[in-house]
Prior knowledge:
By secondary structure, this protein is mostly helical. It has two domains: 2-193, no CATH class; 197-241. Helices cover 76% and strands 0% of the residues. The chain contains twelve helices and no strands. The longest helix has 24 residues, at 152-175. It is globular, with a radius of gyration of 19 Å. The N and C termini lie far apart (41 Å). 29% of the residues are buried. The model has no long low-confidence stretch (mean pLDDT 87). Pfam families: DHR-2_Lobe_A (PF06920). This is DOCK9 protein.
Amino acid sequence: NLKNQLLTDHGHNPLMKKVFDVYLCFLQKNQSETALKNVFIALRALIYKFPSTFYEGRADMCSALCYEILKYCNSKLSSIRTEASQLLYFLMRNNFDYTGKKSFVRTHLQVIISVSQLIADVVGIGGTRFQQSLSIINNCANNDRIIKHTTFPSDVKDLTKRIRTVLMATAQMKEHENDPEMLVDLQYSLAKSYASTPELRKTWLDSMARIHVKNGDLSEAAMCYVHVAALVAEYLTRKGMI
């Protein structure tokens, strides 16, 4: 039947991709407040019925969804920010349940990556509105009695803390873009905060290396690349690929 077709290859199939793109299109186009709320409700149902689509295999659909939801966490409308924050919380909470209440690593990483992308794409993403949305997500975790005695609330707090670190560091980088030494120090602090997310740590180490090369500090750049190589080797070893 249709549901089995949609679940083929953990939801990574052409039919599910077309269905998901319809949902995504509703988020990417300007909608009324009422329409958006209904889209958020429909997305909850999709996530609940087809969790493997977002938490297994490729991360492209989870990534795209996190990006669009986070944009609405910066909405000028308070009601939309609240709805978007609660939907993002639902995505994380559902991920946690899907792993047998062990972690929500997939959504955690995609949220951080999406925030990093939004910094470049959306002006004011680190403002008061977005900070309020982060607080809503934290409150949802703290008031969720079912998972009160699990690691989930503290993991959510860690995620929002990491997001704030990225936003603060990015703002500082803009202030010190003409001070190479300060800029590299900020890049290093940010890379260090990603000890548990190799993909993003590598991204910031690469960025540090480019700054060193630009300034003629080739030894320092080489050290960054050695660190990246070690990071990749460690990751591949954990995956059993080398």
